Amino acid sequence: MLTKRIIPCLDIKDGRTVKGVNFVNLRDAGDPVELAKQYALKGADELVFLDISATLEGRKTMIDMVLKVAEHVNIPFTVGGGISSIADVDVLLKSGADKVSINSSAVKRPELVNELANKFGSQCVVVAIDAKQIDGEWIVHLAGGSIPTELNLFDWAKEVESRGAGEILFTSMNNDGTKAGFANEALAKLSETLNIPIIASGGAGTVQHFVDTFKDGKSDAALAASVFHFGEIAIQDLKEALRENYIEVRL
C-alpha cells in the first residue's frame, strides 16, 4: 500500500511566504528557504511552492529560491506560478525542482499538459485546479481564484489526466483558509473518477481533518499551509495520529 503524504504549501509573494483566507487577506509567514529546511527536518514528505505573484521579477526571485531550496532540502518539491512553456519548466527542473504545477496556463492552452508530459514525463507534471462550489456545481477558477470559467472540476480533471498529468492538486476555494476541513465529498468523487493521485488542499484546521480526508476523501496526499507555518499542528504528531487511525505514513 502506498503511504499517504503530508505536504506543507508555501505561497510566495515578493520572496516571502504568505498565507490568506479564501485567497485574500495575506499575512507574512516567514522566509521560504528557512521554512523548507525546517519542514524537511520535521518529517514533511514533499513541499509545494506557489509563486502567487508570478511577474517577470517574481520569476527571477523564484529561480534563486529554488536553487537555495535544492541546496538545503532533501525531499521532493514542486514549484508553480506563471509557468506557461517548456522553457519555464526546463529552467526550474534544472535549478533543482522535482515537479512543476500548472494551473491557469493549462486552462488557457490545454496542449501545454501534453507538451510537458511528453518532454519531461508525467511524474513531473502536477495540474493544480482551484474550484468553487456554486449552486451545487464545482466551477474551475483562474488567476488565483479570481476569474470563473465554464469548466466543471471533474470534467477538467479527467481531461488533464488524459493529456498526461501525473497528479491533481485540488484546492477548494470554499474551504481555503477556513480550517473547517477539506472538501471530502468532491475529493472522493475525483478519486473515483481518476487513476492518478489526488492532493487535497484547502481547509485543514485539525488533525482529524487529515484523518477524514484520507479516509472519507480518499486523498493520496494532504496539503496545508497556516496550520504548519504558525505551529498549530506539528508534522510528527500529525503522522503519529494518522498511524493510530490505521493510515499508512512515512515516519
UniProtKB/TrEMBL annotation:
The keyword Cell division does not apply. It catalyses: 5-[(5-phospho-1-deoxy-D-ribulos-1-ylimino)methylamino]-1-(5-phospho-beta-D-ribosyl)imidazole-4-carboxamide + L-glutamine = D-erythro-1-(imidazol-4-yl)glycerol 3-phosphate + 5-amino-1-(5-phospho-beta-D-ribosyl)imidazole-4-carboxamide + L-glutamate + H(+). Its main location: cytoplasm. It is found in: Cytoplasm. Signal peptide: none annotated. It comes from the Bacteria. The active site is at D11, D130. Pathway: Amino-acid biosynthesis; L-histidine biosynthesis; L-histidine from 5-phospho-alpha-D-ribose 1-diphosphate: step 5/9. It is an enzyme of class 4 (lyase). IGPS catalyzes the conversion of PRFAR and glutamine to IGP, AICAR and glutamate. The HisF subunit catalyzes the cyclization activity that produces IGP and AICAR from PRFAR using the ammonia provided by the HisH subunit. Heterodimer of HisH and HisF. This is Imidazole glycerol phosphate synthase subunit HisF.
